[in-house]
Amino acid sequence: MGYSDIGSYGGEISTPHLDRLANHGIRFTQFYNTSKCFPTRASLMTGLYSHQVGMGTQPGSFEKNCVTIAQVLQSAGYRTLMAGKWHGTDLPVNMGFDRYFGLVDGAVNYWNPGERRPGEPMPGRKSHMYPRTWAIDGNVFKPYTPEDPDFYITDAFTDYALDYLETYQSEDKPYFLYLAFTAPHYPLHAWPEDINKYRGRYTGGYDSLRRERFQNIINLGLFPKDIVLSPKHPETPEWADVDNKEEEDLKMAVYAAMVDRMDQNIGRLLQKVAEMGEWDNTVIMFLSDNGACAEIAEFTPDIPPGPVESYRSLNLPWANATNTPFRKFKNHDFEGGICTPFIVHYPDMIKSPFITDQPGHLIDIMATCIELTGANYPVTFNGHKVLEMEGESLLPIFKGNQRIGHNIICWQWANSVCIRKGKWKCVGYINADWELYDLDLDRTELNDLSALYPEIVRELDSLYNQWANKTGAKVKTINSG
Question: What H or E segment, with its residue span, contains residue 424?
Fold first, then answer.
């Protein structure tokens, strides 16, 4: 999902339920994921860097040196529930969740992730990656073909989440629910009524949308007024030169409809929490697993996006717009790849809404859950020694205070590398010179200062490689200065 897709972060897409949480809670402007889906989930679940737990290069099994939030909270007496995308080979019910419904693998057809059903077209799919693995509790399906002709994955994940809350609400146990939507990951699939809300909205093009969102971001106070919008990506064609403007408008309309439907389902969840009488006492956190996706996944180029038989992607020009104000995308460690909207809503603690620019990272969520619940992080688990948490609790920020925070935070995914220390961020690629940015003055990473401050580059290069050697990430061998 792009940084500015939801209304409370500058978007024009209708997201009233997320905006409600943001307007009564905390909005982080510098919260970070890993720029890639499965490493994000690994860090989110364990409080460790993905490389430490065997999930730094490809989805697989977790190492025995870690525990998940679900395992920690389960041992503290919580009912642990999950619906949605997992993206690892260990089933969630074997990693601390009492109940699970969802996609164990990566992306699938939203309407039908399995075999063709009678009277319906062949589902669009990545044939070389079919079938994907699905699970309901401990039962595995490969493929999973839903019987319901009105199945839609975003709705289905929420249906199960609501059913779990209904089933266990009379228990004398607190609950932990992890709801991992695939939306708005490709393929571009959405309900026709949702698409119709946005048809024609994007005929002005992606450049116009970037300018509109950028002004919204300034008006919302998310960034200083002197922030500079990054230039559009050099591979983005001029809108005036685009021949198929209606098709491009449809792509973005379907994408917007997917975000809209996700928000509708979040609204259903929030209503249930309120009906349970747990509104004030429930901590709700929302974030995305990576920045906007510029990947090309056009497996049915002759079929318009939307229906079951299509498999289309948003592609670079619109991804550049959804990532306003940043440059770069998913798979890169520039802000456009790793910076996520992060909303926290907790009425019992957060009495007044505010926006914070204090940095945070996925690894902090485990520590935060432990401090919130009083659970114990184990030294050993199932006979194996557990690594110490890398994260630090976000509770000082929740309480409106300044936290000390991390000395450094590091990233490495594929060929992309990054280290942040205070306001300084070194970012680049394994076999290229570092770029250096002062994020206090340059959040959109436009002014490379590596030539002016070679001593800072050398320091951060050394710290990055120390971190890489500790965690098992790739070492960077070329550096400026």
Answer: strand 424-429
CATH of 407-481 given 3.40.220.10, 3.30.420.280, 3.30.70.2740, 3.30.1120.10: 3.30.1120.10
DSSP-assigned beta bridge partners for residue 91: none
Decide if 347 contacts 26 (C-beta within 8 A): no
Tell me the angle at which helices 245-275 and 16-23 cross, rounded to the nearest 10 degrees.
60
Q: Is 171 exposed, middle or buried (0-12, 13-18, 19+ CB in 10 A)?
A: exposed
For residues 184-190, average pLDDT: 98
CATH topology of domain 7-406: Alkaline Phosphatase, subunit A (3.40.720)
Q: Which residues pair with 180 in a beta bridge?
A: 84
Q: What are phi and psi of 31, to 5 degrees?
A: -105, 140
Q: Which residue has the tokens 């079938």?
A: 131
Instruction: Measure the CA–CA gap between 340 and 289, rounded to whole angstroms.
Output: 8
Question: Whole-angstrom Cα distance, residue 292 to residue 328?
Answer: 8
Report CA-CA distances (Å) from 325 to 214, 236, 254, 329, 463.
6, 15, 22, 12, 29
Residue 209, SS3 per DSSP: helix
Tell me the whole-structure pTM to 2 decimals. Answer: 0.97
Residues annotated as catalytic (active site), given as ranges = 37, 87
Contact between 81 and 177 under an 8 Å Cβ cutoff? The reply is: yes
Residue 480 has pLDDT above 60, yes or no: no
CB atoms within 10 A of CB 126: 16
CA gap 436, 420 in Å, rounded: 10
**Cα dihedral: 49, 89, 71, 373 (round 10):** 60
Do the Cβ atoms of 378 and 386 come closer than 8 Å? yes
pLDDT tens for 260-311 read 999 999 999 999 999 999 999 999 999 999 999 999 999 999 999 999 999 9
Token pair, residue 404, equals 């000390």
In which residue are the tokens 């620019």 written?
A: 357
Model confidence pLDDT, tens digit, residues 388-418? 999 999 999 999 999 999 999 999 999 999 9
Token reading at 292:
């906007």
The whole-angstrom separation of Cα 43 and Cα 35 is: 12
Side by side, the strands of the sheet bearing 175-180 are 139-141, 134-136, 99-103, 79-84, 175-180
Residues of the chain with CATH 3.30.1120.10: 407-481
Residue 230 has pLDDT above 90, yes or no: yes
